[in-house]
Specification:
Layout (H helix, E strand, L loop, with lengths): L3 H22 L3 E10 L5 E8 L6 E7 L2 E4 L2
Antiparallel strand pairs: 1-2, 2-3, 3-4
Length: 72
Amino acid sequence: MAFPALGASVSAGQAEAKEVAKSQGNCTPAKVEVMRYTMGREGQTVFKVGCTEDKEAFVLVQCRARICTLLR
């Protein structure tokens, strides 16, 4: 069974996650990975955003309804 809305909502959150990584995490965003996705009324996505400053550096950003916060 395909969930087209699932992919659209996760993709939409990536732009917000990159912006939070840049503005709050002092991280120039590179690769973005979905670490966790929870569906439902309280749905959320946790992104791992790689930083270009250091190959090993990354930040975690949690997004709920396209409102994102820096976790780490």
